[in-house]
Structures are given as structure tokens and as C-alpha cells.
Amino acid sequence: MLVHVVLMRFTDPARAPEAAERLRSLDVTGSDVSYDLVLTTCHEDAGELAAYQRHPEHQALAAWLTPLLAQRAVVDHLEPARRQVPGPPTG
């Protein structure tokens, strides 16, 4: 699984709540090294990530959000597929 993580720091932190309302991932500590907002998405592979990034809704949000940012950091990493733990037997 490819995990795509985007950290965002706003030029005006007062704009972060509006973005968080759209993304639901606002920083809660507000430390000096914190970013204001994080977006994490999971994809089967790099091709699926690229398709996500080309999607019109993603493009529209990015067009609104990018001018508000002072900094952005991105990490794309591979995470091993999670094994499902069997539930208790039924019946």
C-alpha cells in the first residue's frame, strides 16, 4: 500500500480551520514545529495516487488551498498490506 502524507503550514493560521473542515485533520498541539494540517491518503500503487491527483475534485481543492500555504511537505511511503485478523467464530 502506498501512503501519501501531506503536511501544510498556512501563511495565516486562521485559515486552517476552514481547510480542516474540508479535510478533518487539524493539528491540536500548536507547537513551534507543528504543521497546521495533515492529509493522509492510501493507494494501491503509484498509478492510483497519480489518478487521485488528477481527479477534478482534488484539483479544485488544491487550487483553493495552495495559495493559502506558507509551506508544504509530502512523504509517500510504502506500508505492508495489513493482515486481517479473523473475528470470533459465528454460529
Please tally the helical runs, counting DSSP H or I stretches of 4 or more residues: 3
The dominant shape is globular
**Major sheet:** 3 strands, antiparallel
Report the portion of residues in β strands.
Answer: 25-35%
Distance between the termini: 34 Å
What is the alpha-carbon Rg in Å? 16 Å
Please estimate the helix content. Answer: 25-40%
- By DSSP, the count of extended strands is 3
**Mean pLDDT across every amino acid position:** 79
Question: Taking strands numbered 1, 2, ... along the chain, how are they ordered across the largest sheet?
Answer: 2-1-3
Order of helices and strands: EHEHHE
Specify the structural class.
alpha+beta
Poorly predicted segments: none
Task: Write a concise keyword list for the protein shown above.
91 residues, alpha+beta, 3-stranded antiparallel beta sheet, 3 helices, globular
Summarize the structure.
The chain has helices spanning 16-23, 46-54, 56-65; strands at residues 2-10, 37-43, 69-78. By secondary structure, the protein is of the alpha+beta class.
